[in-house]
Structure formats: structure tokens, C-alpha cells
Amino acid sequence: MARTARRLFAANGYAATTISEISGGANIPLQTIYSAFGNKPAILEEIRRLWIADADVQELHRQALATADARESLRLAARWTRRQMELGSDVISMYQEASRTDPRIAETWRQVLWSREAAIRRLLNSIAPQCRRGLKPDQALDVYVTCTLAEIYRTLVSERGWPPHRYETWLSDLLIHEMLDQP
User: Which DSSP letter does residue 132 get?
Assistant: First the structure.
């Protein structure tokens, strides 16, 4: 059911897709969907939960925190960003669209982005002693968040035809250049 909803949300837009269409596409009775989820925001949240579980970025984040070499930490961060985008840039688009019309989803999305920033801040704090002299923690966070926007991934990979591994290499090199003193 979540796969069908994800496909329909991506193709038709979150707002335009009805639970009835999801029911028909998944061949699941409408009442079963309402019993299991209750509403479209809950279905979208299930899609996000499955995406994050599939991307398994927590393990890459853990490895990045455990690595003493800041360059390797940033390479792992680029890998986790690529993995999230490769498996879920459509989910990000769904949340962005749904946030414009549903305050509950907007609040959920703010919390998701806050959690993401907290994880990034932990990473940046772990490499702070190796960061470029004069780079303040908030500046480092601003650079990181900007460089990893979903719009950049979509532009380079979906629109410009870059393979995801090229995006990952580019992002890794960019983060290292922007964050660390060059040898």
C-alpha cells in the first residue's frame, strides 16, 4: 500500500491523490486503509519511515562519527546524503508539496529537518578540531545544509544526468574544500 501511495504521490502530487485512488491502485479495500492509517498524512509518514529504514543512514552517520579522519567523515556524510537522495528525493518533494497545504505535515517536516540538522551538527562537532581556522560551527552547518539540498541533487542527477556516484564524489570534494584546511 505504501509503495502504491508513493508512486501515486510522485506521479500525481500529494494533494491531487486521493485515498480512494491509493485503495484502487493497491487493490486494498478503502476501509482497510482508513483502519490501518486513518488519513493521508499517516500514509505519507509511513512512506518516510520506510524510506529512512531502506536508506540505513544511521549506520553511515555512526561510522562518520567514529572516524578520526575529518576527510573520511565528510566522505561518509556525502555517501549518506547520496543514499538518502537516491532512495528518497521523491519523498522529500512529497513533503515539500504537502507542507504547503497541510500544517500538520509542515510541522512534521520541520521536526524531520531539525533532527537532520542535529545529526549534522553532531558530525561537525566531531570534526571541529580539524575544520578550517575561523569557520564557526553555525557557518559550517549553513554550508553543509546548503550543499546537501535536495534541489541540488535533483538538478545534477535527475536533470543534468549525473550518475549518483559522481554526485557523491562532487559533494565529498566540495565539503572537504569548504570545511577543512587544505594540506
Answer: P
pLDDT, tens digit (0-9, with 9 covering 90-100), for 63-83:
999 999 999 999 999 999 999
pLDDT grade for 183, boundaries at 50, 70 and 90: low
Contact 17, 5 (CB under 8 A): yes
Nearest by Cα to 75 from 119, 83, 116, 149: 83
Burial class (CB in 10 A: 0-12, 13-18, 19+), 124: buried
Tracing cell 498524512 back to the chain, one arrives at: 41
Look up residue 93 and give its three cell numbers.
518533494
- Of 76, 85, 55, nearest to 172 by C-alpha is 76
- Is 158:112 a contact under the CB 8 Å cutoff? no
Provide the residue count of the chain.
183
| 182: pLDDT strictly greater than 90 | no
Please tell me what DSSP assigns to residue 157.
I
Beta strands in 4-137 (DSSP E): none
CA distances from 164 to 2, 80, 161 (A): 25, 12, 9
pLDDT in tens, 167-180: 999 999 999 999 99
